């Protein structure tokens, strides 16, 4: 089940309060596996919102720009020959 990032903790807490348990959380806070008292399992995964996706894209662009500037400064800029 995919839930908005800002709702995951509330949904998981509600499931645990209703008798469920967390059986896997090594990937948290992106993904959990919950089980009900009978052992039926469901995965809960977050869906990043538009703002988070935008920020991630901006961060990646900034890292690329900084890496390119560092390569140019050190003379290690990669030259592509076609």
Q: Can you give a write-up of this model?
A:
The chain is of the alpha+beta class and 82 residues long. Helix content is 43%, strand content 23%. The longest helix has 25 residues, at 50-74.
| Low-pLDDT sequence parts | none
- What is the β-strand count? 4
Q: What is the alpha-carbon Rg in Å?
A: 21 Å
Mean pLDDT: 85
Global morphology: elongated
Question: Quick recap of the structure?
Answer:
The protein has 82 residues and is of the alpha+beta class. Helix content is 43%, strand content 23%. It is built from 2 helices and 4 strands, in the order βαβββα.
Write the layout of secondary structure elements.
Layout: E1 2-4, H1 8-17, E2 21-24, E3 31-35, E4 41-47, H2 50-74
Parallel strand pairs: 1-4
Antiparallel strand pairs: 2-3, 3-4
């Amino acid at each position: 089940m995919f839930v908005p990032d800002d709702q995951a903790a509330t949904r998981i807490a509600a499931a645990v309060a209703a008798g469920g348990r967390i059986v896997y959380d090594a990937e948290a806070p992106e993904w959990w596996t919950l089980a009900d008292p009978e052992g039926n399992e469901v995965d809960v995964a977050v869906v990043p919102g538009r703002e988070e996706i935008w920020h991630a894209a901006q961060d990646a662009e900034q890292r690329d720009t900084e890496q390119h500037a560092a390569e140019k400064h050190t003379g290690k800029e990669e030259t592509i020959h076609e």
